[in-house]
């Protein structure tokens, strides 16, 4: 999956990298190429070029990331399908400005990524694409030297006859929204392009199943026939959610785990209404829709409550085709939901960050770790949303999730940790909590693993000299002798004395306190 977001109204001035740091090979290949350790906690990328002082749009593919700042395009990560640029480099370790060809007639304003390809929308409404083209997902006009369906192609214009207002990509499929009308192309094997077919071709008895792709943008005719204008869409690699201007929600494509909220889990080739039954008599207005690989979510506005969220599909604790209201436990309204491959990041109105889904570290709220590497030990699921504690205090404004890593965006000017310097220029390294002792301070998470992974990433991206400067700012882990002083231990009340520091809990309610006296009785 991929998620792209426009951040024109938000000050995304800081970026944090989280997940696999090896951009070589494919998603299924080893994640520790040449000893490149995954980052189990977000590490800041302090020297990203931002001509406008902020990131305006960002997207992450399987192993690469692209973003827009000040009308210029930048990227890093895998380039093995030339999804970044045409240079003969399989990996771009450092952040590189991507120069579009002369055929580009405008400046970049929005980006979207599939697994191994990139889309860029320009300010004149045209769309450029590059990278993997095995399913004709680039939408280029073929010629005699570059046939459709070849493995990869360099940057060129998408054969789009209307000005694009929004672009979307996931897996090997693409979508464009223009004046309330949706266009789609690429791989259609799940029927999620909305054209009423999977494109399955006749095959020999023993041959593999083959699917005919949609080579160029085609209008999704069903919504036009129904005289519906589209306000927004959310996509995964296999299903599509559509929000109409009338506030209705429709789904089409793969319905495994019930993520289209239909009674059957078979493929849905014709858009169907997603019916969400309000839990009260108070009207609920649809605000936004969100899709991940295995689930769907929708945010509604309720007049006397604020924003609420419904979810359906594979939710971590169950698979339900009936939309259920989700309680995040946030002190503020839900602002954004970013979906990935069984992973969700939830952003609150005041910049809080929560995570939800599988491949999340079992240490729970102590670290808020979100792992993209199955080889990391102690990995389990979060059946319910939990706060990402190691990002506490940072004002998160957006995020992009790919198959192997995520990039989280924050607003430095609204950094909320008390007692810290407000000087943005000196705050290159921020670690508000020492997240390297996750199990109640009883043991350390793989000694130096976080430091080693951060050092390796910074060295490759910014050079050895700059990385050395940054590493000097990285807080040192608490010595083991000091950790022992705050170690938590289970004791009966007879083992306590006046002045003891205690943690007490009841189900999911926790409290910290100090023993002030004893009841002798």
From TrEMBL:
Record keywords, A-Z: Repeat
Placement of RCC repeats on the sequence: 180-246, 351-412
A Pfam family this chain is assigned to: RCC1
Membrane-spanning ranges: none
Signal peptide region: none
Keyword Repeat tagged: yes
Protein name, UniProt field: Uncharacterized protein
The organism of origin for this protein: Neobodo designis
């Amino acid at each position: 999956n991929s998620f792209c977001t426009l951040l024109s109204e938000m000050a995304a001035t800081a970026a944090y990298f989280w997940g696999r740091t090896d951009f070589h090979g494919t998603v299924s290949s080893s994640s520790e190429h040449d000893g490149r350790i995954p980052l189990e906690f977000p590490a800041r990328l302090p020297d990203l070029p931002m001509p406008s002082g902020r990131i305006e749009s960002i997207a992450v593919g399987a192993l690469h990331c692209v973003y827009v700042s000040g009308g210029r395009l930048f990227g890093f990560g895998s380039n093995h399908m030339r999804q970044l640029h045409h240079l003969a480099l399989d990996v771009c370790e450092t952040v590189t400005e991507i120069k579009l060809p002369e055929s580009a007639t405008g400046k970049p304003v929005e980006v979207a990524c599939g697994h191994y390809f990139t889309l860029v929308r320009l300010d004149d409404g045209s769309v450029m694409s590059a990278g993997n083209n095995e399913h004709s997902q680039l939408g280029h006009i073929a010629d005699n030297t570059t046939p459709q369906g070849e493995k990869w192609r360099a940057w060129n214009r998408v054969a789009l006859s209307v000005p694009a207002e929004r672009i979307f990509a996931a897996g090997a499929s693409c979508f464009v929204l223009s004046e309330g009308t949706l266009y789609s192309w690429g791989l259609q094997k799940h029927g999620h392009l909305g054209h009423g077919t999977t494109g399955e071709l006749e095959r020999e008895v023993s041959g593999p199943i083959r699917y005919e792709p949609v080579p160029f943008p085609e209008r999704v005719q069903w919504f036009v026939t129904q005289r519906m204008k589209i306000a927004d869409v959310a996509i995964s690699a296999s299903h599509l959610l559509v929000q109409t201007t009338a506030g209705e929600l429709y789904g089409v494509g793969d319905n495994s785990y019930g993520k289209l909220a239909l009674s059957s889990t078979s493929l849905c080739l014709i858009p169907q209404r997603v019916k969400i039954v309000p839990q009260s008599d108070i009207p609920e207005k649809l605000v936004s829709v969100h899709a991940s690989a295995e689930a769907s979510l929708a945010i509604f506005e309720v007049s006397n409550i604020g924003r609420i969220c419904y979810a359906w599909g594979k939710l971590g604790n169950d698979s339900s085709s009936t939309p259920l209201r989700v309680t995040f436990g946030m002190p503020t309204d839900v602002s954004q939901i970013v979906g990935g491959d069984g992973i969700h990041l939830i952003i609150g109105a005041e910049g809080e960050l929560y995570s939800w889904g599988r491949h999340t570290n079992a240490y729970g709220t102590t670290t808020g770790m979100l792992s993209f590497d199955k080889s990391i030990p102690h990995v389990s699921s979060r059946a319910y949303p939990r706060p990402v504690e190691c990002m506490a205090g940072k004002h998160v404004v957006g995020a992009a999730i790919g198959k192997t890593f995520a990039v989280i965006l924050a607003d430095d000017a609204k950094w909320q940790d008390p007692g810290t310097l407000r000087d943005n220029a000196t705050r290159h390294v921020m670690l508000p909590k020492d997240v390297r002792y996750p199990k109640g301070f009883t043991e350390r998470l793989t000694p130096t693993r976080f430091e080693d992974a951060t050092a390796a990433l910074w060295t490759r991206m910014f050079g050895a000299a700059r990385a050395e400067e940054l590493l000097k700012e990285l807080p040192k882990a608490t010595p083991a002798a000091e950790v022992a002083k705050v170690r938590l231990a289970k004791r009966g009340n007879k083992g306590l004395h006046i002045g003891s520091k205690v943690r007490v809990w009841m189900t999911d309610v926790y409290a910290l306190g100090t023993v002030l006296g004893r009841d002798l009785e």
